[in-house]
Amino acid sequence: MSIEFLLNGERIEVEAPPMSRLLDVLRRELGLTGTKEGCGEGECGACTVLLEDVPVLSCLLPLVQCEGRRVDTIEGLARSEAGPLIERLVSLGGVQCGACTPGIVVATCALLRQTENPTRAQVAQALAGNLCRCTGYEGIHRAIQALAEP
Amino acid sequence: MHVLRPRSLHAALEDLASDARLRPMAGCTDFMVPGAATGADSDGILDLSLLSELRGIRWNDDWLEIGALTTFAEIAASNFVQEHFSALVEAARQVGGWQIQTRATLGGNIANASPAGDSLPVLLALDAELELSAAGGVRRIPYERFHVGYRETALGAGELITRIRLPRPAPNVHQSFRKVGTREAQAISKLSVALCARVDDGIVRDYRLAAGSLGPTPIRLREVERAVVGRTANSETADRAAEIATHQIHPIDDVRSSASYRRWAFARIVRRMTLDAYASSLQG
Predict the structure, then answer these.
(1) How far apart are CA B196 and CA B273, in angstroms?
(2) Which of A91, B50, B97, B119 is the most exposed place for a label (fewest CB within 10 A)?
(3) Please, how many CA atoms are within 13 Å of residue B251, restricted to the half-sphere of its CB?
(4) Is the pLDDT of residue B39 over 90?
């Protein structure tokens, strides 16, 4: 089945079974391996992408539901609005093994689109669905708070 | 395998009438999980996600009507729900994490019929009603009659849940919801409890208690309610509620918890929630 959607601002057409996980289409068909597979069952947040600006899990998103819609992945966001966040995550200890990082960046971008200077509680709520087993989240909070600093 | 994507409820119900084996899907937060009971492995799938007429929240006389495809993120953000149904907001905010709340729908949580569904005890305590639609017509049933056994529902062949209806609560009804899991977010509940209670002049006038993950279906604890309504609001009554409550549940040992922990924690939560309802009535 041929599915057309807007991916990172570009119109694309993918030939794949309708119930393919968007995660697999991104990684295997399109070579966009920035989106990571963690648990594959909606628990860890590593595969987060934006669907019409809203954070969703690409492991639970069938390709068919992307038809005609706007999807943004870490690759697109890293080239645009996520740049300063990624720099601060790296410099302030927000990254260790890195497996959760793309999902954390995507979810944080979604939060920042809604709330310019989020409080620590808002960040914790927004990232509740992103598991990080290395950093203890402190470096991640530091990096996001540092965005508000000049 | 084929996926049908109707653009109107009418078309969806016609599709379902012509092939009752079609599996409906919406937010997919359980449907797409490998090995989940709802199973994306069926031959034919009916994707409901384009039915915008089943999204949204509005008042219809004294009932709040929530379209079955309304997501938990939309429910938690709704002014109507925030103002009148605080327990539902609490439950909506504790479903999975943000990425789950943006996709998971209230109708899906109900149709999925897991005894651990987060919103289900709240809907029981709120006296929710369901609107079920089929090509042949629409019917309404009390939500309490929907779950008839473990993952078995009263949904007939060709029927979809189309709306969830909540009666406007009387003033001064205290609502609470508590979910116990391994962590705050992303945990499937070990147990969950919802209470709507009204205390006037020190007497319990209304008391509706429901629980999840403590039996094959979410349960409304009618015997506790009968034992408590009309009594003086004090710690003895709270103890009595907790005592009777533990005899009305059927917890099991499973990967998430043990039956004995569930029983113990449940009694504590019922007692605490009951006392909180009294305290809130004193604050007026």
Answers:
(1) 9
(2) A91
(3) 26
(4) no
Q: Which CATH class is domain B174-282?
A: alpha beta
**pLDDT beyond 80 at A16:** yes
In the CATH scheme, what is the code of domain A78-146? 1.10.150.120
Residues in chain B within 8 Å Cβ distance of A60: 28-29, 31-33, 103
Task: Give the other-Cβ count within 10 Å of B149's Cβ.
Answer: 9
b/e code B10-26 from CB counts within 10 Å (16+ = b): eebbebbeeeeebbbbb
Confidence of residue B38 (pLDDT cuts 50, 70, 90): low
* Angle between helix A138-146 and A83-91 (nearest 10): 130
User: Which of A18, A57, A62 is facing B99, going by the closest CB pair?
Assistant: A57
CATH superfamily, region A2-73: Beta-grasp domain (3.10.20.30)
pTM value is 0.95
- What confidence score (pLDDT) does residue B1 get? 77
The segment(s) of chain B belonging to CATH 3.30.390.50 are 174-282
> Are B87 and B177 contacting, i.e. CB atoms less than 8 angstroms apart?
yes
- Residue ranges of the domains in chain A? 2-73, 78-146
To the nearest whole angstrom, how far is the Cα of B57 from the nearest Cα of chain A?
Answer: 20
CA atoms within 13 Å, Cβ hemisphere of B280: 17
- Cβ separation B32–A59 shorter than 8 A: yes
Is the separation of the CB atoms in B249 and B261 below 8 Å?
no
At B214, is the secondary structure helix, strand, or coil? Answer: coil
pLDDT of amino acid A14: 98
State the average pLDDT over residues A104-129. 96
pLDDT single digits (tens) B141-176:
999 999 999 999 999 999 999 999 999 999 899 999
Domain B55-167: top CATH class: alpha beta
What Rg value do the Cα atoms of chain B yield, rounded? 19
Sheet holding B63-67, edge to edge: B57-60, B63-67, B160-167, B129-134, B137-142
A-chain residue closest to B36, CA distance: A41
**Interface membership of B41 toward A (CB under 8 Å):** no
ipTM score of complex: 0.97
Strands B137-142 and B191-200: unpaired
Rounded to an integer, the average pLDDT of B223-245 is 96
Report the pLDDT averaged over residues A117-127: 96
